[in-house]
């Protein structure tokens, strides 16, 4: 009765405020990209006569169409595009890391991967970089080839140092000859050059 006394504009304003409150309760839960879902939920909520809170004599029923303005549509599209690009980047990173983990699980695969990565530079390829940077991360670097490579690396380092300190060459050759003889490899001990 009070709204009737105030006129149709007051009733319309109260109905509009009630509809806005109902709509904002639904639309605030949906992302802009889901405007169609919000539209359907709002259509269900306003399909029947509903009493307006604070005005027991007033009931509303409505058909509502929701839409995004051009700026909101552009922002929503930009957000969706950025989200899609970020998800794709994460998926690619996950696949790349899974691949590297599989490659580094076994020394033979790691060597093949290293050769493939450097196929354009095979003439200048140095295994030192592989031995120092990649091989320590390989899961089972205790295979025969890895051990032989590490030993060859050690021997190459010893020879390099002997070149820098010629006085220690006699000590090394004498020690090498004794070790080879103790292992029963006299034939190799005889091949050690005199110091």
Write a brief structural summary.
Helix content is 67%, strand content 5%. The chain has helices at 2-6, 8-27, 35-46, 70-103, 107-117, 127-134, 144-164, 169-182, 186-191; strands at residues 50-52, 55-60. The longest helix is centred in the middle third of the chain and has 34 residues, at 70-103.
Strands side by side in the biggest sheet: 1-2
Q: Percent of residues in beta strands?
A: under 5%
| Share of helical residues | 55-70%
Largest sheet: 2 strands, antiparallel
Unreliable stretches covering 5 or more consecutive residues: none
Could you characterize the architecture of this molecule?
The protein has 195 residues and is mainly α. Helices cover 67% and strands 5% of the residues. The protein contains nine helices and two strands, in the order αααββαααααα. It has a two-stranded antiparallel sheet. The longest helix has 34 residues, at 70-103. The model has no long low-confidence stretch (mean pLDDT 78).
